[in-house]
């Protein structure tokens, strides 16, 4: 809500830069694959792209007529997708600095976006309970996923091989979908997610064991075994609800953040 982005060095925990430019609160951030650029989505209905090396804004995209809720770079960082409360997805050309396509994507706010690892597909989800898979080259909708319970959806994430998709929903469930079959094959439960948008992601340990990581409306985050669906770890980490969590498999770090209570970001070293 302070309209700023702060970059923190994970080694020293010192703030290395503060990025200012948005006029209202920031809902989502996305790093480019090479780690040099950051895209931000804001309630001011704008998307901004920042150069981490110079701490400066290099692109500003306007066109949504309501809050921008999420952003996602394609793997080459040549395209940037943004999802909005105006129920559309916009595809931006980061090199040409223009909007390439506007997709009338959902019947409710777009709550999650993710490109497949090869960049050919874009997944979106919404409070309307639908997941849609789009052809990133032309914006055509290729598939629509819907669960029998049709809960509001808050996040989607492709697996590293692009064959599966994680979806988080406001019924306190995380589902693993087979992208080709457009069907859920596993469900992860135990956390609470009925109030806030829930981020979930894949996570690998150094012995190649696979996990699913997610935040919770409680002061905890959860780690499940990907295959067995059993809860491997529950980490009580903050004095209020955990609003954000992410992981870096290469150095086994997990970051968690909370706004209520301690208003902090914490780094955790994963040790199986």
From TrEMBL:
<keyword id="KW-0677">Repeat</keyword>
<dbReference type="InterPro" id="IPR059122">
    <property type="entry name" value="Beta-prop_WDR5-like"/>
</dbReference>
<dbReference type="Pfam" id="PF25175">
    <property type="entry name" value="Beta-prop_WDR5"/>
</dbReference>
<feature type="repeat" description="WD">
    <location>
        <begin position="19"/>
        <end position="60"/>
    </location>
</feature>
<feature type="repeat" description="WD">
    <location>
        <begin position="146"/>
        <end position="187"/>
    </location>
</feature>
<keyword id="KW-0853">WD repeat</keyword>
<dbReference type="InterPro" id="IPR036322">
    <property type="entry name" value="WD40_repeat_dom_sf"/>
</dbReference>
<dbReference type="InterPro" id="IPR019775">
    <property type="entry name" value="WD40_repeat_CS"/>
</dbReference>
<dbReference type="InterPro" id="IPR001632">
    <property type="entry name" value="WD40_G-protein_beta-like"/>
</dbReference>
<feature type="repeat" description="WD">
    <location>
        <begin position="103"/>
        <end position="144"/>
    </location>
</feature>
<dbReference type="InterPro" id="IPR020472">
    <property type="entry name" value="WD40_PAC1"/>
</dbReference>
<protein>
    <submittedName>
        <fullName>WD40 repeat-like protein</fullName>
    </submittedName>
</protein>
<feature type="domain" description="WDR5-like beta-propeller">
    <location>
        <begin position="2"/>
        <end position="269"/>
    </location>
</feature>
<dbReference type="InterPro" id="IPR015943">
    <property type="entry name" value="WD40/YVTN_repeat-like_dom_sf"/>
</dbReference>
<dbReference type="InterPro" id="IPR001680">
    <property type="entry name" value="WD40_rpt"/>
</dbReference>
<dbReference type="GO" id="GO:0035097">
    <property type="term" value="C:histone methyltransferase complex"/>
</dbReference>
<feature type="repeat" description="WD">
    <location>
        <begin position="61"/>
        <end position="102"/>
    </location>
</feature>
<dbReference type="InterPro" id="IPR050505">
    <property type="entry name" value="WDR55/POC1"/>
</dbReference>
